[in-house]
Structure formats: C-alpha cells, structure tokens
Amino acid sequence: MTDISKEAMMPPRSFLSQDAIQVFYRLLAALLICAVLAVLSDSFLSLGNILNVLRQASLTFFIASGLTLVVLTAGLDLSVGANVALSACIAGTVIHKTGSPALGILTGLACGGIVGLLNGIMVTALRIPSFIATYGMLWVLNGLTYWYMAGETLHGFPAGFRQIGSGYLFGLPIPVYLLLVFLGIGTLFAQRTIWGQEIYAIGANPVAARLSGIPVARRLLLVYAVSGTMAGLASIIFLSRLNSAEADIGESLTLPAIAAVLIGGTSLFGGVGTVFGTFIGALILTLVLNGMNLLSVSANWQPLVTGIIVILAVWLDMKTRRRAQ
Amino acid sequence: MSDAFPIEVTSPTPLLELRGISKEFPGVKALDDVSFAVYPGEVHMLLGENGAGKSSLMKVLCGAYRADAGEFYHNGEKVAIASTADAQKLGIAVIFQEFSLVPYLDIAQNIFLGREPKGRIPGTIDRRRILADARRVLDTIGFDIDPSTTVDKLGVAQQQMVEIAKAISQNARILVMDEPTAALSDRETELLFALIARLKADGVSIVYISHRMAEVFALGDRITVLRDGRRIDGVRPADVTPDQLVRMMVGRNVDMTYPRNFADKPGELLLEVKGLSAPTGISDINIEVRRGEIVGLCGLVGSGRSEVARAIFGADPVTSGEIIFDGKAMSGEPDLAARRGIALIPESRKSEGLALLRSVSDNLVVSALRKLFPSGLFDQRAAQRTSDGLIRQLRIATPSARQTVGLLSGGNQQKVVIGKWLAAGSKLFIFDEPTRGIDIGAKSEIFALIDRLVAEGAAALMISSEQVEICHVCDRAYVMREGRIAGHLARNELTEENIVRLGMHHA
C-alpha cells in the first residue's frame, strides 16, 4: 500500500515526449472532425473537396510555419499578413515589368526576408518587444503598399507562373507538394538541427540560453528573417493563385495564421510546440471552415467558431501540461 | 532567560519582545530559538554574516514569515504576529533595501497608498486633504519637498525618506531598517542619522541591520549578533571592540570538512583580469587564476562579486580594463566566452541556469551543441547517450535523461548546470554560490567534483557567502568590498576572520 502511494508521488516518467503526445491528440481531433463531416456531408469525402482543403490549409501553413519559429522563441510576428501583401505587389510589378517570373519570385522572397530581418533588428538591437515591433511594422507595410499601389490592381500573369498556385502534378495541386516540402524542411530544421535546439532553448528561458553560450541575438534575427521569407513565399503562391495583386490581400491572413499556430499546440510563452503541430492546426482550421461551407452554415459564424477552437485548444494544452508537471 | 541585558534600561518593559523564535525551511534552520527585545526609543543594531538569520528575523517581525515556534510580547502582553496586518497594528514597519514605492504616483499618493482620503464623489481621492496630510507627515520627519512630486523623479535617499514618512504615517513605533545606508552618499547618510536621532527622541525604536562597523558604534544603543540562525550575544557598543564583534559573527565551527587535494604548484596562468571596470558598479578589478587552482571571490552580498563573474563571462558590458583568457584578450558576448572555454554557473539556477520545462538531456547538451554535432545536424539519440554518460558521471538522481529538469531536487539541478559545461569541455569554471539551497551531502559531492576538475587541469573561480567553504576549498581568495578588490588572502591567511575583516566597512 505504502509502496504504491510512494510510486504515485514519484514524478512522472515520460516515455513519449510532451510534444509527441500533443501532436497525437491533434491528429485524433483532425480525424474526428473528418469522420463527423464525412457522415454529415456527402461531398466531404470527394477527391475535389479533399484537395481543396489541403490547398487551403497549405496557404495558411506557409505563413504559420515561419510564425511557429517566432512563437517558439516567445515572440510574435503580427506583420506577416501585411508582409504578404507588400511582397506580392512588388513581385507582381517585377513580373509585369521584366516578364520574368523567376525574377519576380526572387524579389518576393527577398522582400519578405528583408522585412523579417528588420523585425529581427528591432527586437534584438533595439530591444523592442516583438509584439509592438511587428505591430508597428504591420502599419508601416500597409502604408507602403497602399502608397505603392495607389488603388491599382495588378492583373494577368504568365500561364507558367500561374501553375504554381493553380496547377496540378500527378493529380495533386502544386501547393500541396510545396506544403509537404516545407513541412519536411520546417520539421527537420526545428527538430534535427542545432539551430532548432537553440531556438527551443531561447524560448524556454532566454536568460539561461544566453548564459549557456547561445548567440541569442543572431538566432532571433534568423527566426524573424525566416518568418518574413515564408511570408514572401506565401505571397508568390497567392499572386499565382489569384492571378492578381491588390494592396489589401494580406488583411485576413495574420490572425488565421496565429490561430493555426495556437491550435497546433505552440505556446505563446515559448519553448513548446512543433512545426508539424502547426500543420495540423492549419488543417483543423481549414476543415472546420470547409465543413461549415459544406453544411451551409453562414460564413458569419466562422470567426466565432475559430475563436472557440483556439481557446479550447490552448486551454486543453495548459491542462494536460499542468498535469504533467 | 529572556533578559539578556542585566544592565538598566530606560524603560523596564520592552516595547516588543520575541522569545524562542524558530523558523525552519526545508533543509535549513533559518532561526533557532532566537530571543530579541526592543526597548522604546532605542537603536538596536542587528549584526551577522550573510545567511545568519537577519533577514528571516526581520520577516518574522513584520509578519511576512510565520514563526514555527516562539512567543511575542508587546508592552509585556502576549500577542501574535501571524500576518503583516498584525505587525502593522503593533506599529512595526520595515524599510527594505528594495523600496516598495509606485514610481509613477506622487509622494502623497505613495504615503497613503490604499488609505487615501475619499473625495465627495465616490471613487475619487480628496486631493487637497491628501496633500495636506502628506505635508504634515513630511514635516514631522523634516523632509522639505513638494508632496505632489512623482516618486520616479526622486533619488534613492529621497525615496527612503518617503518610505520612512509612509511608516510614520501608519503610526509606526518600531522601524526596521535593512542596511539603510548601503546606497547613500556620506552627506545623505548624515541626514539619515539626524532623522534617526529625531525619531529616537520621539520614542520610536529602530532595529537597524548593518554591515558597517562605524555606524554600529556611532548609532547603536545595543547590538545583537546572529550566527547560523542563532542569537550569539547581546552587547552594548561601549563593552566591545570591532574585533570582538567579528569573532562573534564568525564563530569557530570548523567541523565541516570538504575533500580537497591541494596542488603543490599551481599551473600556467589561465585567466588574467586587469583593471576591469563596469557600469554595474565594479571598478579596477585585478584577478589572476591559474590552472589547477580554486580561487575564492568573497565579500558581502552586493559587494560586486556576481558582477565580476558576469563581466568576465561577457554577460554585462565593461567600460575599461582587460580580460586575458588562455593568453588571448577577450571581449564579447557570453557565446564567445563559452566557445573559448569559460563556464558560468550562475547564482540563480532556476532563473538563469536552466530551462526548467525542458528535459535533463536538453539542458545537459545545450552548451555543447556545436561540439557534439559539428555538422549542425542534431541527433536526439546521440544527445541522450552523452546525457546518460553525464548522469552517471555526476550521479544525477533522475529517472531518465528525458525527465523534466524542473522536477529534480536543487542539488541535482545544480549538477545539471555543471554537467552542461563539462559536456562543453570548459577550462575555467566560474561558480556563483554553487551550494546555495543544497543539502550537505550534495555539497560535498559538488566540491569533490570541483576538486577533480581542477586536478585535471581546469581552474575554478568560486563566489561564496559561506566563508567556511571558501576556507576549506580554495587555494587563495580575493575579498571584495563596495565594488573593489579589498584584499587578497593566500592559503595560509585564509581564515573566516580575515575574510570578514576585509569585507566589512571600517571607514
């Protein structure tokens, strides 16, 4: 009797890492949503719909994957949506002016990356809290984009370029391939490189990380630059898929990306979470919206449902983690 | 028993008397049967080394800690001090070293915080009355300042005056002051002493914690010396010499022994610090550490020991001076120092040494990532193998390398912090209070480990407030006082008395 109670008092011995457990629960949740939707709607399981869900999820994922790294360091990048808009408009202009999609893609990625780097400089060299630095950046980028576009819309890009967002390869949309590639790269980077390990360490305790000899400022610069570059990538896919660019295309992107990160189990306090979790977060978010469309629930309800899912997911995370402590 | 002062006093009954107070924390007896009496209108000096129990006694007095055993008497009547409200009712107020003022409120609002006179409209403050009341309180302590000045515009000395005014406004009859002159200039100190004389004349009693011999003799009516949580003696300044006080504070407990194999001859010079000054308050620091040596860095808390450690490690900027490590000059961030082979084991393991939510393995390899994985590719299994080796070598008690490090005991957490630098292959280990909050068994294990490290050619710079430990373990030691090196003690001069004598303020 006493032995048993003593054992119960012992700290839990974790055979599966907390991260693995969280990803597992999320996969279950995603499958559950799929099962429910498959029962409720005939068209859910159609190939067309599933590919549509994956393509939608990929757009959120590109932005959210870079953002995941930022959130892992206990930071936040609120400028990703505005960054997508500016990068898309600049890339679109370059393609129009030069006729070269390759040059346009490079400019879009570079624009995104530079914006991210500027965020990183504000956070490290100027020590402005990331929330405020990137919030300010959001307005600056919006201002630049509106001034640059002056109400115009860029429209009509070469057919080859449009393939990136709308084309298919062996029956799968090209963005889905890109999704798999970047999911792989992101997971490898976070879990299998020493930079990834250092990013987790910084998020878990920035003071201890610095005093453990981690070059904290350089890693933060990298993380914000990656987040910006991923926004640049997303801008290319948007540009190609929409076949047009306007100043306001980024306005509805940032909050869903943050939602995907949070639903995916990455803690805003840093040090906890995975890129794969964010992928499932983006998937869950898209599935729910897709399901509501299929069931003809008014689109007006979507923000409310998203909000409830975010709160539920984070609350459940905190509960399970507290139990693990 | 309780009357430790057979000599006549101004009033026969103490204003406040503590009898047989004990307070225990896991692993430490902070206060052990301490009796202590404060008479009306006296300045009672409280003396003791770091960790002697002064702070604990102060916290028991003001109700922040609840004593495990013991009795309180107020004017001869038995009372209870179970909360800060109880203490306040008895007229006890504490002026901590860290002030508890709200910087963006003005002086009057700070004095009457939570007790503001209400205005006619509910929820408002009667502005005119609060200013007038504040003016009156400030006048009683002779502080001539506009009470509508915001506190963030005040200097340290003025903020202290506001704290005192706040205490007086709460009808404090016993004022406990924790090293009140620590941050004051000579002129400000004079003003404070004048105020203390004035308060005394009004019958206010003052319990004064000090590390400065001069003020102990200039101000004190009586002196109580604490050591290891016990009351050693109560004396009058006229009856003792500073040397006698130092001996009382230090005691002669030499029962603790730590393993140490002293080298016959120290090795080559590893660290040379020349004329180092930093904005954190250290100036003209000169230190040498050779391979095979454990060099102590002692002095009182706040004398700049940790600041020296942080400056050497690159954690704080420096204004002038040189740090030469392994023959090459060094300046830069901690990542550079770590790469060159310097390790810092910080004072606060939980907030500065570990990522508490991460695993033992994650914490053990964090400083060695580049060394273990030169390709940049991280391998969880290889990291765990390295960690398993360190866990065995350091005998870290953990169910597995995957255990969350925050769940380990203090001693085992400290071993993890040391282990991460072993993994990194560091050459110079800077320990800041390596045994704080660690039980005796783990302490000697950690000292055995440090001894082994230096025997294998590394070197250690060890900060400790435990002078016994410094004396037993170190080859030699530097003693700091007010941001400077006050002296150097060779092995044969290394005694607790010498450390305390050099570290105290005699001026």
From TrEMBL, chain A:
Keyword Membrane: yes
InterPro entries the record matches: ABC_transp_permease
Membrane topology: Multi-pass membrane protein
Pfam families in UniProt: BPD_transp_2
GO cellular component: plasma membrane
Subcellular locations according to the entry: Cell membrane
Residues spanning the membrane: 20-41, 53-72, 102-122, 128-148, 168-190, 221-239, 260-289, 301-318
GO MF annotation list: transmembrane transporter activity
UniProt keywords, alphabetically: Cell inner membrane, Cell membrane, Membrane, Transmembrane, Transmembrane helix, Transport
Signal peptide: none
Keyword Cell membrane attributed: yes
Main subcellular location: membrane
PANTHER family documented for this protein: ABC TRANSPORTER PERMEASE PROTEIN YPHD-RELATED, ABC TRANSPORTER PERMEASE PROTEIN YPHD-RELATED-RELATED
Protein name in UniProt: Monosaccharide ABC transporter membrane protein (CUT2 family)
Organism from which the protein derives: Bradyrhizobium sacchari
From TrEMBL, chain B:
Domain ABC transporter: 16-253, 251-507
Membrane topology recorded in Swiss-Prot or TrEMBL: Peripheral membrane protein
Annotated localization: Cell membrane
Keywords assigned: ATP-binding, Cell membrane, Membrane, Nucleotide-binding, Repeat, Sugar transport, Translocase, Transport
GO cellular component assignments: plasma membrane
MF terms (GO), sorted A to Z: ATP binding; ATP hydrolysis activity
Stored Gene3D superfamilies: P-loop containing nucleotide triphosphate hydrolases
InterPro entries xrefs: AAA+_ATPase (IPR003593), ABC_carbohydrate_import_ATPase (IPR050107), ABC_transporter-like_ATP-bd (IPR003439), ABC_transporter-like_CS (IPR017871), P-loop_NTPase (IPR027417)
S-adenosyl-L-methionine keyword on record: no
Role summary: Involved in beta-(1-->2)glucan export. Transmembrane domains (TMD) form a pore in the inner membrane and the ATP-binding domain (NBD) is responsible for energy generation.
Similarity comment: Belongs to the ABC transporter superfamily.
Protein name as catalogued: Monosaccharide ABC transporter ATP-binding protein (CUT2 family)
Organism of origin: Bradyrhizobium sacchari
